[in-house]
Amino acid sequence: MKTYIITIFILLFSVSLFAQQNRDRVKALKVSFITEKLDLTPKEAQAFWPIYNAYDDKSNKIKHEDMRSIRREIKQNLSTLTDAKASELLDRFIEAENNLHEEHMELVSKLKKIISPQKIILLKSAEDDFKRKLFDQYKRKRGELNNK
């Protein structure tokens, strides 16, 4: 029994470590992709990345914690949702959306001091291109696994 528990623990730890390595690898690819697309100079990159990473962390927290918990609560309580509870959930959702918008506005405001407005606009396009490229790669790998 003890060996069984240790084996499960090692397996879970390995999966967690693998997921963290994948996140780190994706983040490194994103940094490289955006730096290249925006054609950031070393000076611009040095000022840009701390601001962008702080924004990315905050927006991911809002998307993956705040909004996900709201969606989960809606899904779990959909059949018994009262108008009062629905109204509360809508208010929380709107607040999360507003927080995302405020974070983006703050990002743009800070970036205007570092890079040109044209590069700020290119940033949105680069983010979308990266997400699309990542998703396409995921679909391709998933298709390869299903064909095996």
Question: How would you concisely characterize the structure shown here?
Answer:
The chain is mainly α and 148 residues long. The protein has four helices and no strands.
Your description of this structure?
- The protein is mainly alpha-helical.
- 90% of the residues lie in helices and 0% in strands.
- The protein has four helices and no strands.
- It has helices at 2-38, 42-77, 83-111, 117-147.
- The longest helix is centred in the first third of the chain and has 37 residues, at 2-38.
- The protein is flat.
- It starts with a helix and ends with a helix.
- The model has no long low-confidence stretch (mean pLDDT 85).
Secondary structure topology:
Elements: H1 2-38, H2 42-77, H3 83-111, H4 117-147
Helix pairs in contact: 1-4, 2-3
Ends distance: 35 Å
Question: What does the average pLDDT come to?
Answer: 85
Coarse structural class: mainly alpha
Helix content: over 70%
The main β sheet shows up as: none
Strand content is under 5%
- Can you count the beta strands? 0
Task: Give the C-alpha Rg.
Answer: 20 Å
What is the chain-wise order of helices and strands? HHHH
